[in-house]
């Protein structure tokens, strides 16, 4: 099902993953919300398994006591039974592409993806619902962007199943980063990985803050400066500053290609303190000037 408008808050308040006969609740359906708003605000007390994405613009997401920003180049994964706030406040229209999964479909599809053929044959009626995704922001790869744009060409069930399979793939990949953390205790590895993911989400949401510092990031997760630097590099392979710089460059490249904003203005929009800083960086990355890249694209 594809919806072009968000439901009223009264309807959102009734949405549940499991509905009992005696309640007045509504069951979360498999639904894609492909809407367009300049201003909108909602809160959800019990989410489905959800993917928050946009094809244009940025939304604010308040989840797990964090203030997040989801733009055209990122998406956010949320487990079922979470609560969140959602806000659009923009001068230009924001085009959303949010995906919400019916709980029965989600659990059965996830069980199929996680189980062997032998187990599915031997225990066809047993469904394991213990798996939890990491609630976090992800970079929207060109392949995923292309896949999301194909939803009208695919059968609904196939589209949702393949999207869940992709989410499972990137979640396994992120959980595998824990192996890079040099400590013996599994509980410590999990805790440090969680803190690094909080930092990553913060960078994705606040890359445009020119005053964003390593000190601020280490304080965010209550770690000493050098301990934070070491663990972050172990997990992501580069320093926090390099990670931040990479996001700013990728965002600048997108804005150069997709908008008519002046190049110098883009430099400030993505968090560079000086407009001139963007020119040598983009030239080194693309082997051409920002103006030439825009003209060619």
Write a structural description.
- By secondary structure, this protein is α+β, with helices and mostly antiparallel strands.
- It has 2 domains: 2-174, Sandwich (Jelly Rolls); 181-297, Homeodomain-like (Arc Repressor Mutant, subunit A, Orthogonal Bundle).
- The protein is built from 12 helices and 12 strands.
- The strands form 2 sheets. Strands 1, 4, 5, 6, 7, 8, 9, 10, 11 and 12 form a 10-stranded mixed beta sheet that branches. A two-stranded parallel sheet has the order 2-3.
- Helix 9 packs across helix 12 (290-296).
- The radius of gyration is 21 Å and the shape is globular.
- The model has no long low-confidence stretch (mean pLDDT 88).
Topology record:
Elements: E1 2-3, H1 9-12, E2 15-16, E3 26-27, E4 31-33, E5 36-44, E6 49-56, E7 59-63, E8 66-70, E9 74-78, E10 84-96, E11 98-101, H2 103-114, H3 117-122, E12 136-139, H4 142-148, H5 156-176, H6 186-206, H7 214-220, H8 225-236, H9 240-258, H10 263-269, H11 278-286, H12 290-296
Parallel strand pairs: 1-4, 2-3
Antiparallel strand pairs: 4-11, 5-10, 6-9, 6-10, 6-11, 7-8, 7-10, 9-12
Helix pairs in contact: 2-5, 9-12
